[in-house]
# Entry
Amino acid sequence: MIKRDRVAKGTVPGVVASAMVALLHAGSVAAEDYSLIIEFNEQGCPTAVDDAGKSCGEDSKKDKACARRNDKLIWTTDPEGKEFTLYFDPLKGGPKHKSNDGSYSRHIDADAPIATYKYTIVSPGCSPKDPRIVIRPD
# Structure
């Protein structure tokens, strides 16, 4: 004999399950896009990464961005069109992303651990820049 869960009379089990899932996700925060501007000096070298104080709230400062899982980070350059490479892992074959047109974007992994991550910005002929990304809880 198969035991069945009790459902209120006149309801469809699938509808009840869907309503429960909707309630569980009602408190979730929607993914957002964050613009990170890589500032370059007169010599054409990256000097800072600025999120215009939007991602970390009161704790905002240059070279630090705060985001949640599934958020999208969008790097652009000021002035526009500067070449840069982002290194998220120094190991051979690791995540390296090059932009020849001054723009690059990527979503944060849904399974990323809540932590602070360092990445490196490299531009030809310049010293590396090491900003941070803080992954916050949902």
